[in-house]
Specification:
The complex is a heterodimer of chains A (about 230) and B (about 375). Chain A has one domain. Chain A is α+β, with helices and mostly antiparallel strands and about 230 residues long. In chain A, a hairpin with a 5-residue loop joins strand 1 (about 35-45) and strand 2. Chain A has helices spanning about 5-10, 10-25, 65-70, 85-100, 195-205, and strands at about 35-45, 55-60, 105-110, 110-115, 120-130, 135-145, 150-155, 165, 175, 185, 220-225. With about 375 residues, chain B is mostly helical. Chain B has one domain (about 25-375). Chain B is built from 15 helices and no strands. The longest helix of chain B is centred in the middle third of the chain and has 45 residues, at about 150-195. Classes of the chains: A alpha+beta (about 230), B mainly alpha (about 375).
């Protein structure tokens, strides 16, 4: 009996159930959203002399295709090279648009989610790398209320997943002016093989300046201070 | 009465069971995403594991390969073949995500009496139209006008809104037509239960409750040919706006053995004639008007590389890939509809009501998708940071 015969011998309602189940599986769900923008994150956490965190400084590098799309129609004096000034209007558009998405940046302090933790972005500009033909968006997110936290978590993600974020492979996180013995590292939130507790112990290496874990796909920045 | 209960067990339970299976499949699918998102405290609605994650990873890989292929094609003509291959496969995977009309087209097909061939044709036509829209937008906006990305995105948003309005209209129209069928059949069933209808009226009702546009008219004319009908009946049948027809008694025995008291699948005239292909076109237009964001970005990138024509070719091939995925979903929808029909075939009263209920529900789905998309509760795609 061929599989086709076997299939035809099934009762109609079984066939129907199979069809409907397959249909349901293929049905588009929000979880199947697909990104058209890839952004590589490098972030710095800025601290005040008293040890409270005051700002997050992001540098997001976009993929080549999106960079080409974003720069379309922008006049450049030298073809294929955009200056910071030429890109400034676009930087403003990007930052203004990001405001509506909370800059895709979420802070948790000592386990408490800080809602609306950030003020509007400042010091924003775009940088064009003519060799790699990619854009990098720089901007600073000041904390509304600078605060001290033993455990600070910064998450970067697009809840709708139209932008796919990943940390840079090297030096993804940097602490600026943080108290000594503060340690920073990054986490892979979606790796099914990732065990948070284990890696917490392993990667907890005290460092003063920066620790870039080199995680390939991660978007949790964690800072622990004594 | 006993007979009817047997019918119930044999024919209606399986449909309910299948609906349950579908519900479970949907819940499992969504739950996987929810579980993932809550694992690390962040509301990240993306399942990286499982089939969804695999599709997503493939998709991202092919998309990034597209960039390399377009660049390679600039220096080396033979890279074009590779570009076409990648575009095709990318289209297949890409269409697994929302925004390519799978939901609207499959609901539309389920609500209507459609053949598999028509389902495939509709899928292909809407995919080709999506490609054409993307090419026209980029062609006019980027090549001719030299607009910025923000202006282009705004234009796309405007076109998207128009597409969603069309989906709402399509859904509303379907709901109206299917509502007549469903509530008509429901009314008849009630009449049957109370024992009022003494045979004649209700079967004729069941017959014409199954009206798509002009089919009532058509069918009654067919009945006229078969049986000489009193004059009063044909006059009622000639009134297409009125969804009630009063058939004759002699026809009734013949009808009893037929599903829904409506003997045939789609009449060829019904499909190809007025309201047939045109009706399908409205679905194609509603879905196809909305361009695929991926195609737009690929086109702009190709343009920046000085290879716009390669972008155009890639977009069409991508559309073919998309058509395959949408066509697969359409096939399932048509197949499920056909099977449901077979299952509920025998009991003329309840099975018919159930089928019309399902059609009514599918029509409601189309309307709901349109409304959700239009009000922004269901995002299909976003162009990034504009």
């Amino acid at each position: 009996m061929t599989p086709a015969d076997a299939w035809l011998r099934l009762p109609a309602w079984t066939q129907f159930a199979v069809f409907v189940a397959a249909l349901a599986a293929l049905w588009p769900s929000p979880a199947q959203a697909h990104p058209h923008v890839w952004a590589t994150i490098k972030s710095e956490l800025v601290y005040a002399p008293d040890g409270s965190v005051t700002a997050v400084r992001h540098a997001w590098t976009f993929d080549e295709m999106f960079s080409a799309f974003a720069t379309m129609g922008i006049k450049a004096k030298i073809k294929g090279q955009f200056t910071r000034e030429e890109l400034q209007p676009l930087a403003k558009v990007n930052v203004d648009s990001l405001k509506g998405f909370a800059y895709f940046t979420y802070a948790t302090m000592d386990g408490v989610k800080a809602k609306g933790a950030f003020d509007h972005a400042t010091d924003y500009w775009l940088e064009y790398d003519p060799k790699a033909t990619v854009l990098t968006l720089h901007f600073t997110l000041p904390f509304k209320k600078p605060a001290k936290a033993k455990v600070l978590k910064i998450q970067v993600y697009d809840p709708e997943f139209f932008v796919d974020f990943a940390f840079a492979k090297k030096n993804a996180v940097k602490l600026i002016g943080a108290p000594p013995l503060c340690a920073a590292w990054t986490e892979k939130p979606d790796d099914p093989h990732f065990l948070s507790s284990q890696s917490l112990n392993k990667s907890f290496v005290a460092s003063e300046a920066f620790v870039g874990m080199g995680a390939e796909f991660a978007n949790n920045i964690l800072v622990q201070c004594p | 009465m006993k007979n009817r209960r047997q019918h119930y067990v044999r024919h209606i339970c399986p449909i309910l069971l299948a609906a349950l299976v579908a519900a479970v499949a949907l819940i499992v699918q969504h739950h996987a995403a929810w579980a993932q998102s809550n694992l690390f405290g962040g509301p990240r609605p993306v399942a990286i594991g499982g089939i969804g994650g695999w599709v997503l990873a493939r998709q991202a890989m092919f998309y990034q390969e597209l960039a390399g292929m377009i660049r390679a094609a600039r220096d080396n003509g033979s890279a074009l073949w590779g570009l076409m291959g990648i575009s095709f496969v990318y289209g297949i995977f890409h269409a697994a995500g929302p925004g390519h009309g799978k939901a609207v087209i499959s609901s539309y097909l389920f609500a209507n009496e459609e053949t598999w061939l028509r389902g495939i044709t509709l899928s292909l036509a809407s995919a080709v139209m999506q490609s054409l829209t993307a090419i026209s937008i980029v062609g006019v906006a980027a090549v001719l006008l030299g607009v910025t990305a923000k202006l282009l995105s705004n234009t796309v948003n405007l076109i998207e809104t128009a597409s969603y309005v069309l989906i709402v209209l399509l859904g509303a129209r379907l709901l109206w037509v299917k509502g007549h069928g469903f509530f008509g059949a429901l009314h008849d069933l009630k009449a049957e239960r109370t024992g009022h209808a003494a045979g004649s009226d209700r079967h004729a009702h069941a017959n014409c409750g199954h009206t798509h546009d002009a089919s009532c008219n058509l069918h009654s004319q067919a009945a006229q040919v078969q049986n000489p009908v009193p004059a009063g009946i044909s006059s009622a049948a000639r009134e297409p706006a009125q969804f009630h027809c009063h058939g004759d008694h002699r026809h009734h025995e013949e009808l009893e053995v037929l599903p829904w008291g409506h003997a045939h699948g789609p009449e060829p005239e019904q499909l190809a004639g007025p309201g047939g292909w045109r009706r399908g076109l409205s679905a194609v237009a509603a879905v196809g008007l909305r361009p695929c964001s991926g195609a737009i970005i690929v086109l702009v990138f190709a343009l920046a590389q000085g290879l716009f024509w390669a972008g155009i070719a890639s977009t069409f091939v991508m559309g073919l890939g998309t058509a395959i995925t949408v066509g697969a979903v359409a096939t399932l929808a048509v197949g499920a509809k056909g099977l449901a029909k077979r299952i509920a075939q025998k009991p003329i009263g309840r099975g018919g009501v159930l089928m019309r209920g399902l059609e009514f529900g599918a029509a409601g789905c189309v309307l709901a998708f349109g409304i959700l998309l239009l009000t922004g509760y269901m995002a299909s795609e976003r162009m990034g940071l504009f």
